[in-house]
Amino acid sequence: MISKPKKRKMNPMLLNVLLISGGVHAVALFILGSITVYKYIVPSEAQFEEPPVVEQVEPPKEVKVEIRPQAAPQQQQSMQNLRMKQVGNITVANVDVDLPSMEQSFTVSSGLGGFGGGALLGGTRGSIGIGMSDISVFGLKSKAERVLFAIDASRTMLTDKKGGLHSYRVIKEEITTMVSNLSTGTLFNVVFYNDGRLLFFKPRPVPAGDQVTQELINWVAPINSDINKLGAPGARKIKIEALSEEPVHIAMNRYQHGGGNETAYLTQVFLEQSIDAVFVIAPRHSGFQRIARPYTQKENEAWKKRTSDPRYQEQLKEHNKERAELVKKAREIKAKRDAERKKRGL
Fold first, then answer.
1. Pairing relationship of beta strands 107-111 and 277-282 according to DSSP bridges
2. Residue 161 binned pLDDT confidence (cut-offs 50, 70, 90)
3. Which of 259, 282, 305 is where one domain is finished?
4. How far apart are CA 96 and CA 155, in angstroms?
5. What is the phi/psi pair of residue 182, to 5°?
6. What is the C-alpha separation between 86 and 160, in angstroms, rounded?
7. 225 and 313 in one domain?
8. What is the helix (H) or strand (E) element at residue 54, kind and residue range?
9. Is 229 strand, coil or helix?
10. Is there a single domain that holds both residue 219 and residue 328?
11. Confidence (pTM)
12. pLDDT tens digit string along 57-94?
């Protein structure tokens, strides 16, 4: 008779140990697997290393070296060769040499200051700037290759308030000094004018240079240097070349004392020197004004009718009487001023 083997029962404690061990291994595998997946899927953050610290090196201290110039050997002069000689007593007139400011006493105006032919002269004459000079006359500055200096020679430039003959000498010295500083390629000319008459240094502008500067100094020396010889000796009327038959130009020539006529006439003469810039030194400059023209026949008839009116004739008599009194007063004032000027040595 075969007996059936008895079934063995599993030890409950062993079963618990196995279950706990299996659970621990499962948890461990899950954690390690998660770490591996995270490591390969999620990139690691970039890490930066700090650059090495740069050491600042202080520059060497500035060393000041004092260099003393060597004294030039003194020229020994024999005391026996030095002599003092009395040349006599020099008597100087009591002259007030405190000259007024040039900017306040005279009007210096410039025009045409264009380059390469001038804005008002047209652009027919080219320029490459070889003879360009910087020019400054009593504070008025310009640049030019062809320049004209124009000076008023009338008595109004010689009043005591403007400094008289002494200030005029300063003006002439300023012009000659300016010419001596011009570039060699610069062309220049100088003109003195009075009552519509002009005296040019040269017929046309000439190149600057030492020789022509000395010639200019000698030429300007006698102009308004003597109270008994005022004005510009040899000044004459200059014939206008361009459009000389135009009615405006004819009027400018015939009526020089008609206000704007002289200004327009002088400007035209200056322009015909073919210049880039002109500096005009005058006691005053009121700009361009109306040009006086001859009266028409109708205007002459109207004037004749007006002057023949008895009321006009009566007014004219009163005017002439008042004028004679004013002339007498003016002569008395002039005589008084002349006496004062004589005391001052003027």
1. antiparallel
2. confident
3. 282
4. 19
5. -70, 150
6. 36
7. no
8. none
9. strand
10. no
11. 0.56
12. 566 666 555 555 555 444 444 334 333 333 333 333 34
